[in-house]
Amino acid sequence: MIIAPSILNLKEDEYDDKLQEFLDAGIKILHLDIMDGKFVSNTTKDIEIMEKVRKFPFFFEVHLMMFKPLEMAYKFIDLGANLIIFHYEAVNDVADTIKRLKEKGCKIGISIKPYTKIDVIKPYLKDIDSVLVMSVEPGFGGQTFIERSIDKIEELNKIRQQNNLNYLIEVDGGVNLSNSPLLKRRGTDVVVMGSFLINNDVKMIADKVKNL
Ligand code: DX5
Ligand code: ZN
């Protein structure tokens, strides 16, 4: 399984050392959480974060927790973002959002909150590269994994197999080494890991997740 560190709970002056540690541990994806204080009750900086981390050779996935995400998405794409993930619940026109991002040539992901059903994103699954299943309410790192997310992963995996689709299944929120093996068995490709990774031995965790 692939690991994508979230640096939401990292202080800015820790970025350089920690990101180098991620690279040394063979980690290739970096997950950036961007919040505007409206769609979720927390706020982060936005492109300033990208400006600080883009010198590192990661595949950058940007998780936009905001309404009207397109304008911000374009700024991130210009700075080198590779995958833009927007929230199903945050846009009025999902198909149009996908179309506009496609015109920019980036990869596209849709995220759904813990109580949003898979059914609503079914029509778009053929057009996207990734589904980010939120396993906590978006907004803060360090929360407890919501168990019912497992069923959604299984459902997404089934739909993918039955329809010969290629999207990645990513899981975000409360992921650790105890729940990762089950996530893998149910069809997860990428686990986003924030607090658990940052508070423990990065290389040890990266190796374990890689071998799942
Ligand atoms: C939450 C964010 C997550 C989160 C992950 O809204 O999208 O990426 O920071 O952190 P942990 O692993 O601590 O739940
Ligand atoms: Zn996230």
- Tell me the number of helical segments per DSSP (H or I, 4 or more residues long): 8
Overall spatial form: globular
C-alpha end-to-end distance: 6 Å
Mean pLDDT: 98
Provide structural commentary.
The chain has 212 residues and is of the alpha/beta class. The protein has one domain (2-210): TIM Barrel (Alpha-Beta Barrel). Helices cover 33% and strands 20% of the residues. An eight-stranded parallel sheet has the order 1-8-7-6-5-4-3-2. Helix 3 packs parallel to helix 4. The structure holds D-xylitol-5-phosphate (DX5) and zinc ion. D-xylitol-5-phosphate (DX5) binds at residues 6, 8, 31, 33, 63, 136, 138-139, 141-143, 172-175, 192-196.
What are the defining features of this structure?
212 residues, alpha/beta, TIM Barrel, 8-stranded parallel beta sheet, 8 strands, 33% helix, globular, binds D-xylitol-5-phosphate, binds zinc ion
Quickly describe the structure.
With 212 residues, this protein is an alpha/beta fold. The chain has eight helices and eight strands; from the N terminus they run βαβαβαβαββαβαβαα. It is globular and about 40 Å long.
Question: Topology of this structure?
Answer:
Layout lengths: L1 E4 L9 H10 L4 E7 L11 H7 L5 E7 L4 H9 L4 E5 L6 H11 L2 E6 L17 E5 L14 H14 L5 E5 L7 H6 L4 E4 L1 H4 L3 H9 L2
Parallel strand pairs: 1-8, 2-3, 3-4, 4-5, 5-6, 6-7, 7-8
This protein binds D-xylitol-5-phosphate and zinc ion (ZN).
